[in-house]
Amino acid sequence: MIGKISGRIEYRAVDHVLIDVRGVGYLVYCSERTLAGLPGVGEVVALYTDLVVREDLMQLFGFPTLVEKEWHRLLTSVQGVGAKASLAILGTLGADGVSRAIALGDWNAVKAAKGVGPKIAQRVVLDLKDKAPAVMAMGGPVAAVSDGGAGAGGIETPAPAAPAAQVPASSQADALSALGNLGYSPGDAAGAVAQAASEAPEAETPVLIRAALKLLAPKG
């Protein structure tokens, strides 16, 4: 299983890039959002990857963060959602947007992705809502990867996570943890934190917690 690839961009296409890894070229398919954020031809890049193997096809999909890769894995587990639809959703919303949409049950946001109809969007939200808290708790964007630690051939699986004290958690992840400690269910906590974060994207943990608690308070 190829978990990460590092190399030099040989060329860019509409939906993929060719990455040269010590003389071997790998076609890596990415979302529009990911492609827009990649460096130019001739520059070095590193992406977390997911390899799909079928009887007549092998495709490598690339992601800038482990959070986005995990959402791709979960999205493609939903009946009717293939890799193309998953990349469309991630390209439209981004990993954070997918987290908020699913936590809030906002299938209209998912439906905004090209080629995703209302039935599929509703199924995505229904099937994955209970899994959103775990992905959100993975934290914010993973630190930028580099090609310095690539093994033989420049291909490697993601390195083990650093101790928690060395990895700055996102405000959303900290707020989720705090609400969980207060006894709220993962689903309720995720929905409240997602809504609070959507209303105040730059809010730090204490602000998010207070806003989420107001949303969770019984309506009298």
In short:
With 220 residues, the protein is α+β, with helices and mostly antiparallel strands. It has 9 helices and 6 strands, in the order βββαββαααααβααα. The protein has 3 domains: 4-64, Beta Barrel (OB fold (Dihydrolipoamide Acetyltransferase, E2P)); 66-136, 5' to 3' exonuclease, C-terminal subdomain (DNA polymerase, domain 1); 169-216, Helicase, Ruva Protein, domain 3.
Task: Describe the overall structure.
There is one protein chain. The chain has 220 residues and is an alpha+beta fold. 44% of the residues lie in helices and 19% in strands. The protein is built from 9 helices and 6 strands, in the order βββαββαααααβααα. A hairpin with a 2-residue loop joins β4 and β5. α3 packs across α8 and α7 packs across α9. The protein is elongated. It is found in: Cytoplasm. InterPro entries: DNA_helicase_Holl-junc_RuvA_I, NA-bd_OB-fold, RuvA, RuvA_2-like, RuvA_C, RuvA_C_sf.
